[in-house]
Amino acid sequence: MSVTGNGTTSASDPRGLGPADAAAGVAKSMRIRGLFKEYRPGVPVLKGIDLDLEGQGVTAIIGPSGTGKSTLLRCMNRLVEPTRGEIIFEGQDIVSLNRAGLRRLRRKVGMVFQEYNLVERLSVIENLLCGRLGYVSPFKAWLRRFPAEDIDRAFELLDAVGLGEFAQQRADNLSGGQRQRVGIARALMQAPHILLADEPTSSLDPKTSVEIMELMAKLAGERDIPVVVNIHDVALGRRFAQRVVGMSEGTIVYDGPPGGLTDAHLKEIYGGEDWLN
Ligand SMILES: Nc1ncnc2c1ncn2[C@@H]1O[C@H](COP(=O)(O)OP(=O)(O)O)[C@@H](O)[C@H]1O
Ligand SMILES: [Mg+2]
């Protein structure tokens, strides 16, 4: 029995989806239609996004700073309220969810952050056991009592991200790359049906960035879930993604394999051309 109620089941478990949903082929899929977001009335940041995410593999969302990548990702777990449009996750429109629905949604949508969002004073293993979406239950952290199966799962995930030896270390003792590995393991604790990562490498040096993207790609390959990574580093995105979505000023201007991305596309996405040489 899971006391915490968060993901202790295997990745193949439909986790509460009705059989009808699974039969309809909507499990682990997200369908976005006509998505607009305005932080200020009349100033859209997202201007009619259509995007389908399903199946396995990494989708890299590229585009210049300020183009709406984070806003798009944050709409997908309702950290940001969409202004209009549809986001259908596993057959259900998440734009209209109530609080309980939102909690269920966020259990299924794993999130990895640029700044890791770890609880610095807690150990690595406690970060996995307590954290979700960067929020922690102080009561549980204080109690430090967790179901054995959650603890087993946390250790398995730490091994999977190469941090098996670091379980008892405090988060604030770790390097940036190690912290991000904890962030990834924490997101996987809940056995998410989709994994979103917002610039997971932009606080890291180039070598560590490659290692983190390698890890994301490997984990994506092992789990049958879509992995979406916002990344402004085009080369890194192209190298590790099966699909690239290029954004410019709140719209999608390219959606296809990395190999199909031409200089003309990059010019449209990033503007200018001097930087291409
Ligand atoms: N909470 C917010 N309130 C107001 N404006 C915001 C907020 N978050 C982002 N923006 C604006 O929305 C636009 C897109 O931002 P963002 O989604 O962060 O882009 P990206 O992730 O591609 O850099 C920017 O102009 C940014 O200033
Ligand atoms: Mg961003």
Automatic annotation (TrEMBL):
Keywords: ATP-binding, Cell membrane, Hydrolase, Membrane, Nucleotide-binding, Translocase, Transport. Residues 1-12 have a biased composition (Polar residues). The keyword Secreted does not apply. It comes from the Bacteria. Its EC number is 3.6.3.27. GO terms for molecular function: ABC-type phosphonate transporter activity; ATP binding; ATP hydrolysis activity. It is an enzyme of class 3 (hydrolase). Residues 1-20 are annotated as: Disordered. Residues 30-274 form the ABC transporter domain. The keyword Calcium does not apply. GO terms for cellular component: membrane. This is Phosphate-import ATP-binding protein PhnC. It comes from Oceanibacterium hippocampi. The gene is phnC.
